[in-house]
Amino acid sequence: GENVEQHPSTLSVQEGDSAVIKCTYSDSASNYFPWYKQELGKGPQLIIDIRSNVGEKKDQRIAVTLNKTAKHFSLHITETQPEDSAVYFCAASRGGGGSQGNLIFGKGTKLSVKP
Amino acid sequence: DSGVTQTPKHLITATGQRVTLRCSPRSGDLSVYWYQQSLDQGLQFLIQYYNGEERAKGNILERFSAQQFPDLHSELNLSSLELGDSALYFCASSDPRDYTFGSGTRLTVV
Prior knowledge:
The structure holds two protein chains of two kinds. Chain A is mostly beta strands. Helices cover 0% and strands 53% of the residues of chain A. In chain A, the strands form two sheets. In chain A, strands 2, 4, 5, 9, 10 and 11 form a six-stranded mixed β-sheet that branches. Chain A is globular, with a radius of gyration of 14 Å. The N and C termini of chain A lie far apart (41 Å). Chain B is an all-beta fold. Chain B has strands at 5-7, 10-13, 19-24, 31-38, 42-50, 53-57, 64-68, 74-78, 87-94, 99-101, 105-109. In chain B, the strands form two sheets. In chain B, strands 2, 4, 5, 6, 9, 10 and 11 form a seven-stranded mixed β-sheet that branches. In chain B, strand 4 and strand 5 (42-50) form a beta hairpin. The N and C termini of chain B lie far apart (31 Å). The model of chain B has no long low-confidence stretch (mean pLDDT 94). At the A-B interface, strand 5 and strand 10 of A face strand 4, strand 5, strand 9 and strand 10 of B.
């Protein structure tokens, strides 16, 4: 079945630096790749997503890149702030027919941003 | 507020017992998914329903079952509970654009 691997498992950066989290997926039919931020005691919140017909997407300090050939996608956070500290999850799914397939998640990256 | 409502927020129960977790999806969403999150396993997909019918199954134990009702709310039933079932259980719903998650039910089995 589909497998999503995420690296690193922990990441510590200084405020203002950039952070990069990488994921690889196994199912070549996957076409939707969201990233979620989870704060303690809360549910995962979508921060950015990308579909397979796009190579890069940016939203203010957050960007995601997708390489379908390599089955690889990455999250880039620039100018990190202490409030970016959280656990970040990548995921992959197949969509179509009006119904999204189930999301398969990576194991998460705990990001710590030091003031 | 994500639009997905889960109840209860917390549940403490004894081993061997049965519990029911409830989820109301975001308005208009036909798909509901259940995920289990434990410390060492990340977010594990359990089961998906689409408009009342089971669509996909993940790593769901035989002691667990779910259903989606005509009003699209869903229930996850966990029986013969074991200590290892202690976890956060999340419900998500989706439309063709994206998924949204509820805030979860924290289950503690003692």
